[in-house]
Amino acid sequence: MDISDAYRRAMNAFGGHVHAVGPGEWGLPVPSCEGWSVRSLVQHVVFANRWAAELFAGKTVAEVGDRLDGDLLGSDPVDAFDGSAAAAVRAVSADGALGRVVHVSFADGLTGGEYAPQLFADVLVHGWDLARAIGADDTLDPELMALCEEWFTGKQDWYRQGGAVGPRVDVPGDAGRQTRLLALWGRVG
């Protein structure tokens, strides 16, 4: 599966949950993301989306500066998400985007093809987080799980050392794919 398509599909799934957030649910805690509310989780994804659009356009971290700091959701979090998601998916899917150099804060000279799987995995797993927080169906797409697991298995220690994911959760050997994938990301599914 093409990573651009996987990213779009994961973003659409996350967006479905954003659109399902009720007016009184923005302050709900996200149990799998300590200290985060539904609003702060969506803010995190919008922030990542806005950065992705800038970085895939060739901008450096210094050029973007602090322009994306602060509240990106405003009074209409759903609209803010929709705009950011469309821009990020467009950026990742653009002709030649995966071969371009992107200037991320942790590694200069990374290609779009190396950065896009990180964006995809983040939005896929956070889609599960958001679904759990609002009591929605948290079943992940099997094809997307397989792609995420394949990519993340060799990178999990690096992410864990950087504090980006929690400690791996031990699961029984007969656990299903979703439970195993979430365990890699430090989540109990």
Total count of strands: 2
Radius of gyration: 16 Å
- Structure class: mainly alpha
- Assign an overall shape: globular
Mean pLDDT: 92
Low-confidence stretches: none
The CATH architecture is Up-down Bundle
- Helicity, as a percent range: 55-70%
Task: Write down the CATH class.
Answer: Mainly Alpha
Strand content: under 5%
Under CATH, the topology can be stated as: Four Helix Bundle (Hemerythrin (Met), subunit A)
Task: Describe what you observe in this structure.
- This protein is mainly alpha-helical.
- The protein has one domain (3-139): dinb family like domain (Four Helix Bundle (Hemerythrin (Met), subunit A), Up-down Bundle), CATH 1.20.120.450.
- Helices cover 57% and strands 5% of the residues.
- It has helices spanning 3-20, 38-56, 61-64, 77-93, 112-134, 142-153, 156-161, 177-184; strands spanning 101-104, 107-111.
- Helix 5 (112-134) packs across helix 6 (142-153).
- The longest helix is centred in the middle third of the chain and has 23 residues, at 112-134.
- The protein is globular.
- The two termini are 25 Å apart.
